[in-house]
Every structure is written in C-alpha cells, then in structure tokens.
Specification:
The complex is a heterodimer. By secondary structure, chain A is α/β, with parallel strands linked by helices. In chain A, about 30% of the residues lie in helices and about 30% in strands. Chain B contains 33 helices and 29 strands. The C terminus of chain B is likely disordered. The chains are: A alpha/beta, B alpha+beta. At the A-B interface, strand 6, helix 2, strand 7, helix 3 and helix 4 of A face strand 1, helix 13 and helix 17 of B.
Chain lengths: ~300, ~1200
Amino acid sequence: MIELAHLVKIYPGGVTALKGLDLGIPGGMFGLLGPNGAGKTTLMRILAGVLEPTAGRIVWEGRDVTGRPELVWPRLGYLPQSFGFYPNSTGAQMLQHLLRLKGVTGPRGLGQLCSELLDRVNLSSVAHRPVKGYSGGMRQRLGIAQAIAGNPELVIVDEPTAGLDPEERVRFHQLLAEIAERCTVLLSTHIVEDVALLCRRFAVIRGGRVVATTTPAEARAAIHGTIFEGPACSDPREVAGHGRTIRAVFVEGERRVRIRFEDGVPPPGFRPCEPTLEDAYLLTIQSDERESNAPAEGTA
Amino acid sequence: MSGTRVAAIARQELRTQLASPAFLALLVVIAAVTMTLNPAGFVRGTAQAGPHAHVNSVYAATWILTLSTFLIYPFFASLMAGMGILRDDEERVSEMIHATPLTPAEYVAGKLAGVLSALGIAIAAHASLVVICLEIVPRLMPGPAPGPFDAWNHLLPLLAIVVPNVVFIAVVAFAAGERTRRPLAVHAVAVMLFLTVAFVFWQWSPAWLPTLVDHLLEMADPSALRWLTRDLLAVDRGAAFYNVAPLAFGTTFFVNRLIVVTVPVVLVLLSIRHVGNVARGRRARVSGDGGAVAAGSSWEPHFEGFPRMEQRAPGFGSVVIEIARREIRELFAQPAVLLLIPLAVLLVVQSAYSTGELLGAASIPTAGRIAVGTIEVLTAVVFLLLMFQSVESLHRERSIGLDSIYFSLPFPTVSFLAGKSLAGAALGTVILGASAVASWTLMVMNGAAEVWPLALVWGVVLAPTFLVWIGFMLAVAAIVRSRSATYAVGLTALALTLYGQQRGAMTWAWNWPLWGTLRWSDMGVFPLDAGALLMNRLLMLATAVFLAAIAVRQFGRVEPDLAGASGRFELRAIPTAVRSLGPFAIAPVLLVALISWQVGRGFQGDAVNRANRAYWRENVATFSGFEVPRLEHVSATIDLEPKHRRMRVAGTYLLVNRGARPVSRLPVTTGFSFRDIAWRVDGIAARAVDRAGLHVIDLPAPLLPGESMRLGFSYRAVYPEGYSRNGGSLHAFILPAGALLSTIRGEFLPVLGFVHGIGIDAENRAKPASVAPDFWKGTLDPLDGLRPFDARLEISVPAAYRVTSVGKMTSEMTRGGRTTSVWETDHPVVALQLAAGRWNVRRDGSNAVYFHPGHDENAGEILRTLSLARAKFSEWFCPYPWEELRIHEVPDIATIATSFPTNVSLSESAGFLLARDGNERAPFTITAHEVAHQWWGNLLVPGEGPGADVLTESLAQFSALLLREHVEGRAGRIAFLSHLEASYQRSRSADAERPLAEVIDDASGFDATVIHDKGPWVLWMLDHHLGRARMLAGLQELLRASRGSDDHPALHDLIAILRRHSEYPAEFDSLVDQWVFDVIVPEFRISEASVERVNGRWRVSAMVTNIGGGVVTADVALTGTSATQATRRSARFVPGGSHRMEWVVGFAPSRIVVDPDRMLLQLRRDRAAAELREISSSFEPTVRRDGMNVL
C-alpha cells in the first residue's frame, strides 16, 4: 500500500500541479484517470523519485520514502510517458545496459534473460537492429521490458497506450494485466477504456486533486438507470430539461447525445441505456468543474 | 525563397540565442578580454622623449580587435552556431519544421541569419567597448593622450578581420553540426580552430620552414594573426609610424581574406543540400513506414509467466564499467573525435620538436624533454576535449529523453559520474598514448628512445591535473545545470588560469595544470622541485575528490523543487552542505597552507624578497661606494652534501688596503641562507653587526694604507631553501643532481662590501648614471668590482660526484665515502666557481668536457670546439694564460652558459642537448662564445660605464663568428649573421633602442638584442672595413693595454684603438658615428624591375631604395640560375634615397638581391630581393615587362 498525503508540487513560475493530493494506492492494478493537465505525470514522476515534491509525504508499506528515492528505485519499474533510447544501440544492447544498471540477472546470464524478455514483448526478431529504426509500439514494448525486469514491486506506467493502434493497445492491456498479478501497477491514463478494462480501483484526478476514488463497477452502479440516449437537436439543454448532458456521440454517423436524468424520466425520443465508465468519469469531472470556482491550474 | 519564412526562423533563432547563457557569457568575456588587453602591446618600448603610441591608431585597433577575436569567438561562436540545428533535433521540432513549406535553403538561411544576428549584436558590443577603451577612457584618465578620433581606424579592422573571422567560425561550426548532428563535432571545430591558430598559424615558424609554406600558412590562417604578427608587425616601426601610417595590406592578406570569405559560402551551399537530403529522408519515413524495422506486427504476449530473474543492488564497479563502456563506444564512433586525436598528436609532436630553442636550434628531443616541453599543448588539447566530452556526456540522457528511465534505476549517483568520467579519462589516455607512440617513434628514428619519462610526466604527474579538471567540470555541470553555462564557466576557468600564469600570479599552491612550471633534467628527476611537485599533485588529488563530492551531492538526478529551494537554501542547505562537504575540504585546505608556507620561505618567496629589500634599504645610503680593502688571496674549505642541499664553509681572505685612507670597519655581504656565521680577524674572533645581510666588522685596529689582514669566516647553509614559487629557474644550487656555486653574488663565499643589485625591483630601480662624454678617458673601476686574485679551494663531496673549479686540481683523495680535491689558481682570476656532478669526462690535452653519461651526443663536438677555440683565440687575441680549460654540464634548472676562468658551465639545453643539424651549429657557436669569454670578461674586465657589455658579450659573439667563418667559410658566417639579424629584427624597439655606446645590460628591456645581436654585427662591419689583420691587431692592443692596469677599458677605448688601425679614418668615423654612437638601420626595397633582351644579351634594370635609415654603401647583385652567373654593383644610399641599377649580362637573370654577402645589417632582408625567374621562362626579346617583382 502506498499512501500519499497532502502532496504539493509547485513549478517555477507558480504553476501548481498538485494541490495537497491525498491518495491510497492498493496492490494490483490501480488507475489514475484525469484530463490533460490534471497532474498525473507530475504525480508519476514524484512517485518514481525523479521529481522532488514541494510538500507532502509518500509512505510505502509504512515507511516514509519522501525525499529518499534511493529506497524506491530498487523496487521500481518505470515507463514514463515519453522517453528515448540511445539511437545507435540495438534493442538487445539497450536492454542489457539498463538491466546491468538495475542489477538484474537471470539464472542463465544476462544475455539469455534479455533474450527472454525481448521474446516476451516480441522484439526478438529486431533485437539486433538499432533502436532508431523502431516504431512507436516497439519502443513502448522495449520500455515495458526494462520496466518489468527484476520483479519490481511497483510498476509505474504513464500513458502507455497513447499513440498505439487498437491491436497494440489490446496486447499492452494483456501484458499489463499479467504484470499486475505480481505487483502494484500504477497506470496513468486519460483513456477511460483502459481503466475500465484493467483496473480494479482507480482515482480521478483533476486540477492537482483527487476528485474521486472508486471501482469501475461502483462508478457505473452509481448512475445506473439514469442514463438515456437520444437524437441530438439544436439545443441540447432544451432537450435535457432538468437533466444533464454528458456528451455527444455518433452512432453509425448519426449524432446523438447521452443525457443523465436523475429522476429516471427521459424526454420523448430518448431511451434508457447502460451507463459506461466514461459516463461516470465525465459526470465526475463536470460535477467537480461546477463545484470548483478556481480555474484548473495544473499541468502535466 | 520566402523572406517571411526566413525571417520567422531567424527571429526564433535570435530569440533563443539572446536568451541563452552562452550569449551572456560571451558578453562578459568580451568585456573582460577587451579591458585586459593592452592596445599598444604591439609597440616594443617607448622613447623617453619621443611620441607615445596612440592607443586609437588603426594599428592599435587592428591589434586589439584581431587578438581579442581569436581569444573570444572560436568557442562561443561555434557553440552558438553549431548547436542551432542540433537543438531543433533535441527538442523534436525538426520534423514538424520540415513538414511545412519551408525549404532547406530558407531553413539554413534563417538559422544562420538568427545566429549571425546574435553574433552581430555581440560584435557591435565588442566594437563599442573597444571604442570606449581606446577613445573615451584615455581622454578621461591621466596619461598619454590618444590621437584624433577616426572612425575608419575601428571600422577597417572590424570589417576586414572581425566580421569575416566570426562568420567563418560560425559557419564552419554550423556546417559541422548540421552534417554530423553531434555536439562533439561542433566542439571539435572550436578546438581545432583554436589550437591550430594558437600553436601553428600564429607564431610557428621554425628556421627550416620554407618561405612558400610560410606564405601558405599565412593565406590559410583563419585568424589573420600570422599576417598581423609575422608580416605587418614583424619589424617594430615605432610610435610615430603607427600613429599615422595606414595599414599595409598585401597580396597574401587579400588571398587570406578571400579564403575566409569563400569557405563559408561553400559550406552554406553544402549544408543546404544536406538539410534537403535529410528532410526528404524524414518525410519519406513519416509518410511510409520510414525505414522503421517491421517486427512484431502480430505479436501476442506470452502467458507462460515471466522469465526467472533476480535483482540485486548494482555494484559500484560494475555500473562504472558499464556506463564507461557505453560512453566510450559512443565517443569513438564519432568521426570528429577520431579527427581530433591525430590533430592533437600532430600538435604535440610539433611542440616537442620546437621546445628549448636556442640560437635557432631546438633541443635534442629526449623523452623527458618532450614530456615536459609539451605539457601546455597537451593539457590544452585534453582539457578542451574533456570539457566537451564531460558536459555532453552528462547531458546525453536528457537530450535523447532517456533520463526519466535512467535516473529511476537503482545505481548510485557516484558510480554514474565515475563511469562518465572514466570515459573521459579513456579519451585523454588515447590522446596521451597516441602522442607517446608518435613521440617514441620519432625518438627511435633519432636513435634513442626511453619510455619512462613519458609515462612519468604524462601519466603519473599529469593524472591528478586531468582528474581535478574532470571533477571541476562535473561539479560545475551539477551546480549550474546548463550546458552552455557550464561551457562558459569552464572556458572562463581556463582563461583565468592562463591569465594568472601570464601575470605571474601562480604558485605551486594554485598551478593545477602545471603550465610553465616543470623543468626536465636528464641529470635528475625534477631536481629542484620534486618535493613541491609531489605536494602539488597530492593537493590536486585531494581537490579532485572534493570536487567529485560536490558533483555527487549537487548532481540533478532528481529534478529539484526550485519553488521551495530559496528558503531551504538559506536556512538548511548551507549547514548541510558544509557538514557533508566539509570533510572533503580539509585535505585541500591543509595542503594549500603547507605549500604556501614552503613557497613563502623559498628562494623566490616573500621572505627572501623582504630580506633583499631590507638589505638595500638599510645599507645603500651608508655602504654603497664604501671603499674596502682589495682581495688578494682566497683560501677556503667547502664540504658539500648534495643530498641534503647543504654545505659547510670555512676560509680566509687575505686583504690589502690599496686605498689612501685607513679602513676601520669592514662590510661583508653574505648569502641569506648562511647560518652560524663566525668571523675572525687575523686569527682572533671578531664581532660583526648584521645589517640585514651585510655584516659590518669593526676591525681591532684600522687597516692602514698598504697593510694587509686576514679575514676568517665559517658558516653552514642550505641552498636553496623551501620551494620555488612556480617552478622557477636557479643559477646556483646544491642538489642531488649536481651543484653550481659562484662568488658573483656570494653564493658560497662572502662578498666584500655592498652588492649593487640586491633588493632592486621596479619600485626602487634607478636610472643608469649619466656620464660625461669623455668619461672613458679617466681611470675606470672594473665592472662589478672584478679584480684579480689568487685562490686555493679544498672541496669535499660524496665519492659519487666529481668536482670542477677554477684553476687546476693539485690533489685529490677519496676517504670514508667522500672525495676531497684541492684547486689552485695558476694565474690570477677575477671570480671563483665550483661545480659538482655525476659526470663522465673526455679530455683533449689540458682541455676537458664533463658531461652527463646519459647523453653524450654533443660532448665530442663541444670538446673539439673548445680546443679549436682556445687555440685560435690564443692566436688571434693573446695566449691563454691558464693551463687548463674545462666545460661542464649542469642540470637544466636554468638555461645557462657562463664562463669563469678555466671553468665554463653549459646547462643541458644550452649546449649538451642542442640539436647540431641545420645551419645554426648551436653547440659549436655557444661553446665558442663561452670560450671567448675567457678573454672578453675574464682576462679583459671592462670598466664600469655604458657600453661595457659590448666588450664582453658582443666581442664574445664576434669571436664565435670569426671561428665559424674559420671553420665553415663564407656560408657559416652568413648563416650566423643571418640568425643575429633575424633575432635583432624580432627584438629591437624602434623607439627605445639605444646606441651601442650607451647600452647597459638589463637596464632596458631592449639592450640585450643590441648587445648580443647588433653588437657582433657592428664589429663584423668594422672588421670588414679594417681588414682582419688590422682588426685583430686592434683587439690585441686593447688586451695588452688593459691587463694588469687599474684603468679598465670602455667601448670608446676600443673604438679609439681601432681608428688608429684604420686606413680610412673618415670612413671609419662615419661608420662608428652611425652604428656605435647612433641608431640607424637601413632597409631596402626593389621596384620597377625590368628585363630586356637585346642582341642575345639581357639588359636588367631596377630601382633600389633605402626606405630605412643611415648613409650606407650596399652591393646589389644580379644572379643567374647557376652559381657562377652573378654580377654586382655598389651604391651609396642615403635615407629614402634610390638608385637605378642597370646591368647588361650574357646570362639569363633570375634574381636581384641587395647585400648578398651580409656586409650590412638591415631590416626585412627578405624584401630586399626580387625574383626574376618567371621572365626567363617565357622570354620574348625586346618586350619590356615592368613592375614584375614588387614583393
């Protein structure tokens, strides 16, 4: 269990990325969901020990590791949002280099372990090609290979599926799910579907604060029976009446809107539908936006 | 090309450049350099009553702007221009930029326009500052007024030199960065430009360098410094000339500027093409699969579980090796680095073979001399490469975006920094190793090769220097966290070190790169400074550890929280930093204190300086000119212990009062290191008052005129004490490598009376005494009080040493591990000297050479010259009165050649290790010169007064010239006179030069060249006028008249004697009036040369003009292609006067040359000749060609 208490991060120039964030991260896959600029990457980097917080505490299994990243690094696997490799190194050379620096070895030697890890992420065939020729997905796979090496207790993955094609995303989901069986995986993303598919629990973060902590099922259950979908008109507010428009969607090229009516009575032409996690997420964000008078200041 | 798009790129680039720390640092460096340089530094000396050099003349502005441009811009302009495209790559905007309609030409033009605009602002600031310093400040400050303001004086060098040079540097660096996309390539351009200009283009011009190569170097020099120093300012013209004369540009300069302008244009075109190629390649990759390897397109994660693996804390050593291995691989994959290594080796080899030049000859390149002589160039190369490697290496992970992953790995920060440093060390090792291999190969080709001195100096001795530099760069990079700011600090540190070195501010406590410090001797490893060197190296190691600790503590592996830093910095960070770093600072601080104390008590330290000043202050008023009894006989026992630098001395002086008045007290000067001094007068202990080193003994009874007394003395001494200040030289010493002591300044025996010269510095130096024109007609006291006496010295040394002293050895005995020898004079001497060393001896009758067994290359040549010189000088001047004559070798603690009666000292680089090849025959010449001093300085001691040194140094040099002519004939004479003429031309001051009859060595910075170079030339011209027999008769008469006389001769006496021997007194008077009593130097130019072929013969005509001074007669020769084809005419030239010379000859003319036989000292002899070769190859009869040879 990782507990974050009153975490604050202020960048030079006064930009506040985290505003006293409190969060408990249990074992298994934990999602961190939030819009761009919510402070997710800042939080990831602080947890990874590469960014110093302005204030607050990080307690990992009862031990305060704030300002002591050397206690975190040996137990950590980290895949940042954007990263590069030595362009002229091959994938195998790069992975071996990082594993040596990580102190990771295998029973049959480091070379064999690297081969197995590369095979695990299906990079064996290009293991001896320079990294500069790798596609985005291949780089992500090489990145995850180094992150999972050494059986880390905490794996931080920051937007790992951004920019990947649907197939690649699915494969990444499978890989992350498998990793999560062995350790804590903190998945930061703004793609709700990733959380819906992978995380048992997640937190919604916005403006440097945790807006909600829940499970996908609870989130969906909370709005069950109040979500309706119907054709879009010129003024969605007129259609909605006392309800709240969640979002516009396209169904087979037709523009439709999803609306929440808390009393369960929809306007004409609207039919009840199953709530999604995305509905719940957007409602949470909209709700917080209304409650908050201050404009969002965070950046990631 | 769209101007809008170019402007957009240029604006962005300019904004970026102006906001970068490098630009700010550039402005700071411009201010520092401009205000530090002396704008009148190119003028050698100022006349006391003549015009002062205007600091705002076009020459001054050109000098300061050209020099400062070279010092400032190579690194900054390279950094700013070369990183422009790399920055776009690192910030990952290149692809976006090239996906727009922007063309490669627009991109390159915009980038260059931006960076050149930034540099233009810097140049404008630079020029403004120069104008303020040269035009405004002098008008506000007391001192010489500047000349009238003329904007062209500043604009001309700005437009002709500064702007093209800066553009050249910027474009070359830009092209290197664009082509390679690697920062190190950009830095390599800067390093190569700076080093090749500093060590090759600027000044490198050995005597053997062909003229064509010299011109090619001048044309290729991107700094224009070679043109400035070796062409425009090769001869000092004086303030009056520089104040008004326009700059004299020549063809070479215009070719040089053309190259400097053309190269950037070509590089810009190449860059545009390459940018286009790269951009097209990128677009192709973006649109297709971009060459990305296609793999795993249908991969599925395996679910058989993770591979078995374990993680341990990574070990320090394994991480260091891993990081170093990766860095080294990255480093040596770069062509720029592979280019720099041979360049570095070439510079080291070039430097190795130019060290220790004397009389135009370099030292024989032994391993130790190469190792020590190349420290400056070697460290400069390695420092620059290490700086760029360290910073780029630390920055690499960030620049490629690997930092987040990398710095969250569990390796210790110290191992990361150590790994990066190890890669830098590997680079340095490769350069050192390659230089060592190249040097060793050349040494083998020269017949000898030792490796251990290279390993000792470049390895053991320099390793702490490189470590401290790496540590410094790491610490700076960790603290400032900016690539360009780190470079700015690093370059500033190097500049400050150089500045401190130039200003003499360095000591063993601060001289971390050992610049100008070490002196190598084959006779002992760092004989003078081994202890100081050891402590200095320990200090550097301790400092390196301290800096490394700072780097580890401050390194930004974790991005710090700057928002909260300021409060914590003041309240908590400082005590924490002190606590964590304090222990690392203890050792450096203690070592600095210890070394400073040893320097302070050393022979160049403040204690000695204070004591010297006190000696002068307390005694000059009372005892300057105090008449003391004459020394008639010396008897002394000297025990030397070289291992401990110690000696014990006991002895007796026999003194006779030759004056007219009784002497009641006796002042005696002792060495400052003498301890436990005891005096006895006629065998009875006497008391003396110590007046700051001058011991004043009250005699029991006045010593009446004609009476004699015996002054006994005993003391012990350590010489030298403490450390030198910064590896200084020493002319007297007792060291394990050998001992050298003389009586000139009381180094081992007391000196009677007050010694002039001790305690004199810039503050209390008096002008030379003004003397009446006929001062020489009275009785003159001997120079430095050198009067003849007899001596008997009993010298004891450890048995491993040999001793040589004045006179002849009358007995020698070895007992108890010590050898005691007795030396007695067989003819009176004017000074004593003793030397000890572990020598081998070669004898030729009563002549002998004592030399170090490790290098006997020149021993035979020196002995042959010694014997020949003794024989010929005895024949030409007068018989040699002593039985023996010896030359001994002394360690190269100082480059010295001194001649005491029967005993000549030559240091290693002043003879025994001078190259014998080439025209200079340096060992021969130096030996002949020093042997000649047996006559000119020992037998003949000139009288006190101006011109005295001409009778010693000029005559000794003239004697060497006669001996070379005797051995080598006309060619040898011409070679030696050419060397003297070149040396005079290089060193003379047009305004401050004094006539030969007025020079006093050391009284002015410019008398030395008059005495040593012009003096022998003038004596040669007198010899030519008189004829050899009459010249020698005159010299013999001078010697006869002076020996045994109390009246010591002046230069005027020599002139008077020679005049009596002249057949043409009027011509003689004209000669000496101009060359001895006045300062004139002719300088010739040939113009309007033409050739006509008439009836199978050639009619040649040329105008010869003396643009220099003096009324002189000169031969002008016309030569053909063979040695026998020559004819000459003679003409008398007045200042500014011309003569049209015409010949009709039957051979094809090839050259006109003024004074082919070196009969007339002149300036720019290279321009007093005209080549006619091209005419002869395309001859057309009756076709006249004018002006074809104006050089």
